[in-house]
Amino acid sequence: MRTLFLVLLVVVTSCMRKEPDEISNQVIWFKYPARYWNSQALHLGNGYFGASFFGGTREEVFALSEASMWTGGPAMGDWERAGVNPNARETLPAIHKAVREGHIRRADSLVSENFFGSFDLYGHFTSIGNLRLKFLDHETEPANYHRELDLRNSLGSIRYDLGNTTFNREYFCSYPDRVLVMKFTADRPGSISFDMILDIMQDSSIAEISGNTFQVAGYIDGNQRPFHLFIQVNHEGGKTGRDAGVLTVRGADAVEVYYTVATNYKMSYPGYTGEDPAGIARTIVQKAVTRGFETLKAAHTTDYRSLYDRVNLVIQGDRQIEKLPTNQRYERLKSGKADPGYKV
């Protein structure tokens, strides 16, 4: 139910244009990092891939997916591999007859025995894995923590104070440039240090770290479709390095991370293969780095708002309630209290 309410909030508020009194209903925000992907993590995507962020201060985690990460494969004329049962067509009249005569259990039995194919061969959607950033010198509890997803611009952000330093993070997933971009800043020079780790869920993969780039070439379990992940880390001040499969950043003033992923999937019947995932991923990141963070962000928001601003729906609610974090509004709503801006 918690996930359902969050989805409803996203759907409704995504139909709203920026109005000074309505901003609070267009931002999902929390005062704590996420623990659970389905009900607390905040989700970014661009049609090619998705990245859900948890917002931890000691460790940030991005759960990564890609549209063609599928364990099955094309039928290639073998429709049983695609989940089709060869008995389905001839059994359909008997199913119709059982339903008409009120023999519902018999109809259910006929369907389960003769209508479903081999879904084990059909496959299922799978994940790439997790990108983890383990921040150094973050042992103490932060103050003024704020994690949000701005639905007006499809921008994720996190800010918090640690000692005398304020840290900020910005995330967005661009459709026009097919890239996930992150920016880490702090108001004290040399404060940003972290280890970048990739936990790949697929069985076959090889990681390569060279300078400020992190690449993973692998194969999807179940069909051996190749995929390639490419990351470039740019930094102001400090340095990058490598330590046993980990890309390290030490003493930076600001850091930008450019990420993309691709498979060999090609919209071409019957094999649906033919793309060069390594070439695609490398080219995308190189172009994105050349364009730079601010240019990419402007192009992303312009593209996103061209869709978001097509509809304007304003719901009058309680302005004081709408200043509360999203989880508190949900708890109030669950207890029966009114919150029109959330519930609709």
Gist of the model:
The chain contains eight helices and 16 strands. By secondary structure, it is an alpha+beta fold.
Characterization of the model:
By secondary structure, this protein is of the alpha+beta class. The chain is 24% helix and 34% strand. Helix 2 packs antiparallel against helix 3 (104-114). The model is unreliable at 1-21 (pLDDT under 50).
List the helices and strands and how they pair.
Elements: H1 2-13, E1 27-30, E2 42-45, E3 49-53, E4 59-66, H2 88-100, H3 104-114, H4 119-122, E5 129-135, E6 143-150, E7 155-162, E8 165-174, E9 179-186, E10 192-200, E11 204-210, E12 213-219, E13 226-236, E14 239-242, E15 247-252, E16 254-263, H5 277-291, H6 293-308, H7 326-334, H8 340-343
Antiparallel strand pairs: 1-6, 2-3, 3-4, 4-5, 5-10, 6-7, 7-8, 8-9, 9-16, 10-15, 11-12, 12-13, 13-16, 14-15
Helix pairs in contact: 2-3
Low-confidence residue ranges: 1-21
Largest sheet strand order: 1-6-7-8-9-16-13-12-11
The total of helices stands at 8
Shape: globular
Distance between the termini: 15 Å
Report strand %.
25-35%
Q: Please give the largest β-sheet.
A: 9 strands, antiparallel
Q: Which structural category fits the helices and strands?
A: alpha+beta
Portion of residues in helices? 10-25%
Total beta strands? 16
Mean pLDDT: 89
- The secondary-structure element order is HEEEEHHHEEEEEEEEEEEEHHHH
Over the alpha carbons, how many angstroms does the gyration radius reach?
A: 24 Å
